[in-house]
C-alpha cells in the first residue's frame, strides 16, 4: 500500500513516482467555493452513469441535520452497497462541522479498496480535503487508485486546490460543479 505524504503548496518535484510517469491520468476534481456545491452533481452523475450500465463505486457525501435546527451531520454513502457512514464526530456543543471521526472514515475506506480489487468504470471519492492534504483520510486509497489508472473523481474546495495539484502532480482535470462538465470529462476518457 503506498504511503501518502503531506503535500506542501508548490511542491511538485517529489509527488508519487507513479503519477510522474504520465500526465494523461483519468483523474478529475470538482472545484467548489461553497460547501456542499459538489455533492448534488456527483450524486446525479453517479445515477446517470449507472442508468447507462456503467459500474460506479466509491463514496459520495451529503450534509444532513438532526431535525429542525439540529446539528449538521456529514454522511458518506457507499455507492455499491448503499451503506451509510456518519463521519461527523460527536464532540458536543461548540464542535464545528469539520470534525471528522477517523474510525468511521477508516471503515468507509473499504469501499475504495473494494473498488480497486473488483474493477470499476469510475471511482468517486467524496472529498480531497484537510485530511487528504495532510496525507491522511482517503489519500492512500486515492494514490493507489490513480497508480493503477482507475478513473477517479473527487471534489476539492478552493482552500485545498493547491494541495490537490501537488498531490496529483498537476495531472488532474479541474471541473466546475455541473453535470455537463462531468459528462464531457468522462466521455473524453473513452477517446
Shape descriptor reads: globular
The biggest beta sheet reads: 7 strands, mixed
Order of helices and strands: HEHEEEHHEHHEHEH
Major sheet strand order: 4-3-2-5-6-1-7
Question: What this model shows, in words?
Answer:
With 191 residues, this protein is of the alpha/beta class. It has helices at residues 17-20, 39-51, 102-108, 110-118, 130-133, 139-147, 161-167, 179-189, and strands at residues 27-32, 56-65, 72-78, 84-86, 122-128, 152-157, 173-175. A seven-stranded mixed sheet has the order 4-3-2-5-6-1-7, with helices on both faces. Strand 3 and strand 4 (84-86) form a beta hairpin. It starts with 16 loop residues before the first helix and ends with a helix. Mean pLDDT is 84; it is low at 1-14 and 17-23.
Task: Furnish the topology, listing elements before pairings.
Blueprint: H1 17-20, E1 27-32, H2 39-51, E2 56-65, E3 72-78, E4 84-86, H3 102-108, H4 110-118, E5 122-128, H5 130-133, H6 139-147, E6 152-157, H7 161-167, E7 173-175, H8 179-189
Parallel strand pairs: 1-6, 1-7, 2-5, 5-6
Antiparallel strand pairs: 2-3, 3-4
Compact description:
The chain has a 7-stranded mixed sheet, sandwiched between helices. It has helices spanning 17-20, 39-51, 102-108, 110-118, 130-133, 139-147, 161-167, 179-189; strands at residues 27-32, 56-65, 72-78, 84-86, 122-128, 152-157, 173-175. It has 191 residues and is an alpha/beta fold.
